[in-house]
Write a structure and sequence with these properties.
Length: 417
């Protein structure tokens, strides 16, 4: 194991956003610690405009450069994403490794990925991030050896040659497609059995895995650290009514989640896109709970999952002694993952929301539209169906989320009862 890298963390932005800048810089500190770096110094610079070549301005960069020598720093981490040109300039001035928040998050994900799919997704995101930033970096990276920002999944060293990277990106994309097809078959099967799908989503460290474990007896790693979970885990959950649902734990979100990573994880996050109900888990004891909710909602929007019914689960109320957080719109429930009664209430609520959420519809479909007929057979519970030579008349029930996902042309023909 490599010795821990000594890091300077740098944030910058306009003075009027001071509070937000400080809080994301604190979060960057936790991320650096998660990656086993030692945060030695924090630098916050107020400036109205980003410097296009240096982000923080040349003078400040020189100051940091001196600090690096004086304090034997191995690594400078910028809280804002660096453009390829900024990275190049900073690297040529500062006598140690330079990375940004995105690369740090990618590095943590690389260390955490366990399944084949997770590893491929992370490596793909890393390579796509690196490709435009490569000029000069190849030799820098070999000079600097390994450590944060240079490791792929499973301590594998990241490729640094442009041609190899392109080839590797194509290869990984293809492998991912293969895995995705395989999973789709699996999901079709589940849908066919019409077990409702419930997905746990939320900011990292909110308690998603803990809730999965507490509710289903799963043994997923739940830890007080950022990004404990990368790979989704699904378990059967039996509700008080006896109804069964499938509950899935997913990767946590964070502010400024690298878009390469969201894109690469799109297929894992399909559990979220395909869900009938989302449990948006919130750490109610966190001082920035509301900013975290917003960050999660942004990621959900980018996944086109904003229309799925969601229950906000305000977790960790056992730690929370202040005023109850301001109620947000939609359904809210306050729980502690360690309270049996709260878990029962949560299960009741899931059952109730899924029940209320069912849509009963009636539709006449021309028999030649075999695609629509088979789609309804897959997604919906059939109540009644009759056919003559030309038309098929179907009465069915399905979740609101699935209804919204039907093709618009079909949806427009449906009469809701
Ligand atoms: N006091 C208290 N602690 C909780 C509660 N729920 C979870 N925790 C703790 O919060 C920490 C994070 O929990 P996880 O379940 O790993 O959180 P997560 O949302 O899965 O986090 P990631 O996988 O990193 O996104 C752990 O130390 C849990 O023990 C709760 O209701 N009360
Ligand atoms: Mg987790």
């Amino acid at each position: 194991m490599q010795s821990r890298e000594r890091a300077i963390l740098v944030g910058s932005g306009p003075k009027r956003r001071e509070w937000e800048l400080r809080s994301t810089l604190d979060e960057l500190t936790s991320l650096a610690e998660t990656s086993h770096a030692i945060p030695v110094e924090k630098v916050l610079q107020f400036r109205g405009r980003k410097d296009p070549s240096w982000l923080i301005g040349r003078g400040k960069a020189e100051e940091i450069s001196k600090m690096v020598e004086e304090k034997q720093i191995d690594l400078v981490i910028f809280d804002q994403e660096l453009s390829p040109a900024q990275l190049r300039n900073l690297e040529s001035l500062i006598p140690c490794k330079v990375i940004d928040r995105t690369q740090l998050i990618l590095d943590i994900f690389a260390q955490r990925a366990r399944t084949k799919e997770g590893k491929i997704q992370v490596e793909l995101a890393q390579l796509q991030y690196m490709l435009p930033r490569l000029a000069g970096k190849g030799k820098e990276m070999s000079r600097l050896g390994g450590g944060i920002g240079t490791r792929g999944p499973g301590e594998k060293k990241l490729e640094t040659d442009r041609r190899h990277i392109r080839r590797q990106i194509r290869l990984l994309t293809k492998q991912l497609e293969g895995i995705k097809k395989h999973r789709q078959l699996h999901q079709e099967h589940r849908k066919k059995n019409r077990i409702p799908q419930v997905a746990l989503v939320g900011y990292t460290n909110a308690g998603k895995s803990t809730l999965l474990n507490q509710l289903t007896g799963a043994e997923v790693l739940a830890e007080n650290q950022l990004f404990a979970t990368l790979d989704p885990t699904s378990r059967l959950l039996v509700l008080p009514s006896g109804k069964e649902v499938i509950l899935t734990d997913t990767v946590g979100f964070i502010r400024q989640l690298p878009h390469h990573l969201v894109a690469a994880f799109r297929s894992t996050l399909e559990h979220v896109r395909e869900a009938d109900l989302l449990l948006h888990v919130i750490d109610a004891s966190h001082p920035e709970a509301e900013e975290q909710i917003e960050a999660v909602e942004q990621v959900l929007a980018s996944l086109e999952a904003s229309n799925i019914p969601a229950l906000k689960v305000w977790n960790k109320t056992d730690l929370f002694s202040g005023a109850v957080p301001k109620q947000c719109g939609g359904e809210n429930l306050f729980v502690s993952a360690f309270s049996e009664t709260d878990l029962e209430r949560l299960k009741e609520k899931i059952g109730q929301l899924l029940q209320e959420d069912m849509v009963t519809g009636q539709v006449e479909i021309p028999v030649m539209r075999g695609d629509w007929i088979s789609l309804l057979h897959h997604k919906a519970e059939m109540i009644e169906s009759n056919a003559d030579e030309l038309m098929m008349s179907i009465r069915f029930r399905l979740s609101h989320a699935d209804f919204e996902r039907l093709p618009a042309e079909l949806r427009n023909r449906i009469q809701i009862r």
